[in-house]
Amino acid sequence: MSDKKQQVSRRQFLNYSLTGVGGFMAASVLAPMIRFAVDPVLQASTDGDMQPVVDVSEITEEPQRFDWTFEQVDGWYTSNATHSAWVYKDENGDIVALSPTCKHLGCAVNWAGNPDYPDQFFCPCHDGRYYKNGLNVPNTPPSAALDLYEFEVREGTLYLGSPVENPVEKGGA
Amino acid sequence: MLQKVYDWIDDRVDITPLWRDIADHEVPEHVNPAHHFSAFVYCFGGLTFFVTVIQILSGMFLMMYYVPDIENAWRSVYYLQTQVAHGQIVRGMHHWGASVVIVMLFLHTLRVFFQGAYKKPRELNWMVGVLLFFVMLALGLTGYLLPWDNKAYFATVVTLEIAEGVPFIGEMAKTLLNGDPSIVGAQTLARFFAIHVFFLPAALFVLMAIHFIMIRKQGISGPL
């Protein structure tokens, strides 16, 4: 028997090997399950499909609500979903398509929804208000401007994509 | 670091005896494969438990995608198999594990039977073990319907026919399982799902606890 000092005791060696083997087994069981569970987070986003909404000639300077229906694939469930937008032409004749989703808690806003503010968007849930360009009125609940839809005009028809952040500056209106 | 966290907790609530009680026990020579290789037969109970743990885990994860509804059950299974990362592996674990657990359970039963380990004072634990076997078979049977494909459907039709064959109470037993006197459908699937994921696992956990506590209490049976 050598009288060298033992670096690793028998007990330590067994502890390390058992922990290692056990850890490997647990990891190989759990790894596929965890990847399976987090899959929705790692799925590439599938939006970007432009949907035809309305004939450009119908768009006026007054915001109007247009609805469009498209086939929505939700996991294993396919259905017809309807989205809406408030669309108008601004003073330069450019099309503005605002998302109706309130930036406070996600209710749907209406143009002139409150008779006291006939030229603002109004959210009935908590009296949130927005100017015509989507900017939130200060001192009302919303903390950001209404989102803008990406849009495209193809052969006289307005196509809308996904809502993106509205670039309006504070103080506009 | 870990040692310090452990010591801090142990200092206050004295957790060492709790796990020592579970972890430290004698392994007699006759059950140690290092002494007698034939002692590997003692592993089947532990393997049954190991596969059961895999079944519980994979079942929990499968439930994130599965819906127990006749319109969507098959589609949700198809979706998780084909669209979700590692879906085939996780469902495969549950699918094959269901068979492996029965095989392990059977081998464990054979070992206990042929070693006569069920004899006094361990008869009670044998009975609990038989109940565990029935619960496990029932889990396999109820789980079989859940994918809601043709094989699942007709296997369940057969099961219900068998239940109906019981004298006197057969028809009631069938309706109780089926949820409807004649239609094997929406109510059957919802029922089998509830039984598969709540009722039977609850029974399984209680019986397993009793099984293991009795083993610890009585010790392992002696050498042949």
Task: Describe this protein's structure.
- The complex is a heterodimer of chains A (about 170) and B (about 220).
- With about 170 residues, chain A is of the alpha+beta class.
- Chain A folds into two domains: about 1-40; about 50-165, Rieske Iron-sulfur Protein.
- In chain A, about 20% of the residues lie in helices and about 30% in strands.
- Chain A contains two helices and nine strands, in the order H-H-E-E-E-E-E-E-E-E-E.
- A three-stranded antiparallel β-sheet of chain A has the order 1-9-8, with no helix packed on it. Chain A has a three-stranded antiparallel β-sheet with strand order 2-3-4, with no helix packed on it.
- In chain A, about 20% of the residues are buried.
- Chain B has helices at about 1-15, 15-25, 45-60, 75-80, 85-115, 125-145, 150-165, 170-180, 185-220.
- The longest helix of chain B is centred in the C-terminal third of the chain and has 33 residues, at about 185-220.
- Chain B is globular, with a radius of gyration of 21 Å.
- Helix content of chain B is about 70%, strand content about 0%.
- Chain B is mainly α.
- The interface between A and B is medium-sized, with 12 and 20 residues.
- Chain A: This is Ubiquinol-cytochrome c reductase iron-sulfur subunit.
- Chain A: It comes from Gracilibacillus pellucidus.
- Chain B: This is Cytochrome b6.
Topology:
The complex is a heterodimer of chains A (173) and B (224).
Chain A lengths: L9 H28 L1 H4 L8 E5 L8 E11 L2 E13 L5 E4 L11 E2 L9 E3 L4 E3 L17 E7 L2 E8 L9
Antiparallel strand pairs in A: 1-9, 2-3, 3-4, 5-6, 6-7, 8-9
Chain B lengths: L1 H12 L2 H8 L19 H20 L10 H10 L4 H28 L8 H23 L4 H15 L5 H9 L7 H33 L6
Protein name (chain B): Cytochrome b6
Organism (chain B): Gracilibacillus pellucidus
Protein name (chain A): Ubiquinol-cytochrome c reductase iron-sulfur subunit
